[in-house]
Amino acid sequence: MQGRQAAKNGDHERALELFRQSHALEPAPGTLLNIADCEERLGKLSEARKHYAELIEELPSTDERRTIAARHAAEIDQRAPRLRVSVARGAPEGTSVMLDGAPIGVGRAGDARFVDPGRHVIIATAPGHKESRITVTLPERAESQVEIDAGPAARGDSGKMLGGILLGVGGPAVGVGGTLLVLAARGDENAKGYAAGGAVTLGVGAALASVGVLRLLSVSRPASETNVGIAPMPGGLGTAVTGAF
Questions:
Q1: Is the pLDDT higher at 196 or at 31?
Q2: Of 36, 59, 122, 175, which has the fewest beta carbons less than 10 angstroms from its beta carbon?
Q3: What is the pTM assigned to this prediction?
């Protein structure tokens, strides 16, 4: 009763919460139909479509609620965006893909699936590789095709260790080179030797330290992320994304 009143008042978020609580305590086709109606009004089209399908499957053809569910399901099929996700050619063995935090089974071709209008995050991972991430935003009736690859190979602890060694050697070498150049500035009989040794030590130390810093930064670089917009496609709006990110 409270759910129906909330829906009548236009508070479909509250109505949905109440209908779900009621259905969990006492499942009923009428309550499920109300749940699907609220979800549809709130733009949760994929959930609404699933619940309408359950009603179509469970109710007899003579039940008016089945006819209502079938009509709304057909309307959602026209409204809901479709997203096709596939794995790029040459992707590492064991690449797995998640859509909005849930694992999805995808192949090289990918199957189109209904999704809600709005923002969706696709993440690909593979053993020994960094994750890659694509964010795509879809309006109603859009179609999008996304091809994703795992991220670059992770360098791991060995890369960090090498970067730390190079920085550990290069840093002190810079200090030694600077000290020798200070001594050379005094102008005594060893000044030329100090100057030559200082310049070489300072240069080598700076180079080693620079490489060490770059190595450490490349290892700790976060997973790449790509944001995808909407572009025209045959048959309507959509996106087509290809590449390793």
A1: 31
A2: 175
A3: 0.60
